[in-house]
Amino acid sequence: MQKRIFSGAQPTGNVHLGNYLGALRNWVKLQHEYESFFCIVNLHAITLPQDPELLKQKTRDLARIYLAVGIDPDVSTVFVQSDVPEHAELTWVLNCVSRMSELERMTQFKDKARKQQENVSVGLFDYPVLMAADILLYQTDLVPVGDDQKQHLELTRDLAIRFNRDFGQTFTVPDAYIPKVGARIMSLSDPSKKMSKSDDDPHGCVLLMDDADTIQRKFKRAVTDSGTEIRFDPARPAITNLLEIFHLITNRPVEDVEAHFAGKGYAQLKGELADVTVEFLLPIQRSVQEISEERLDEILTFGREKARVIAKQTLQDVFDRTGLTGTYHAR
Ligand code: ATP
Ligand code: MG
Question: How far, CA to CA in Å, does 188 sit from each of 47, 97, 222, 266?
Fold first, then answer.
């Protein structure tokens, strides 16, 4: 049987190069080897305040991006999380096997809660359990994500193992797929922070939909390290980040990239990086425009139906094992 992958992104802000290089790019590659489920995780998005109209728009925009970067809806299942109610239902059951203490350790919660100050929702705290439900619902083998999701993946595994131990074999225990390069693309304005959709600083992220001038400007003002040498070096995170982006976008080997920039200045690197990025994004931006509303509806409806078949099966199993016997069969 073909192994399965599941992954998703939030329809918050705008998709950036970090999302693409750390996650989406690998989804596109893996979709032909695995049975693939790619979700627009709008239930995750509302863990922080969202404008309802904007959220609707962003949900469709994100679906368009999935398709434009190369997710093939004839091969992969593309759907919206809130269209499949089993995500929320499984979350409740998993909440009851999750420990407060393990959620309190999650660094994403601590970071995001700090920014929210006093208005931290229970949803934000529960985010990792919802993510575990997303993954476990599909009996997922592999989860291609960026490095920042490693801790959440560990929790997902722990919850699956605990549930299986307490209630009998129910869930596949998934593995994380975190790429060797590109798993943590850093902010252009602060190379100690990851590029993030929710970052307040608009200069830190290059967006997939940015126009050529904006891309040039953002790379131009990117922070650099002291010194002049252009090479991959963990002690020089800003330049290494720029080189990593260049390497991934051009598919040129690391040694090749270093040789190419040997003896050149930072301005040259930034200029060339902006050029290759603009060129790379142009066809993606064009395809985004080409997907009609009708086609998108069709894809998301088809995706929802395919996803629900598996989601319902898993939830039925979970209900049976936990003694939640109502009339779920009849639904
Ligand atoms: P937010 O700030 O709202 O959490 P985000 O930029 O982290 O937004 P998500 O939708 O949470 O985006 O994540 C989508 C996918 O992109 C995940 O697999 C995540 O690990 C990956 N990802 C996010 N940021 C980066 C980054 N800077 N480098 C590599 N991968 C990333
Ligand atoms: Mg995130």
Answer: 26, 40, 5, 14
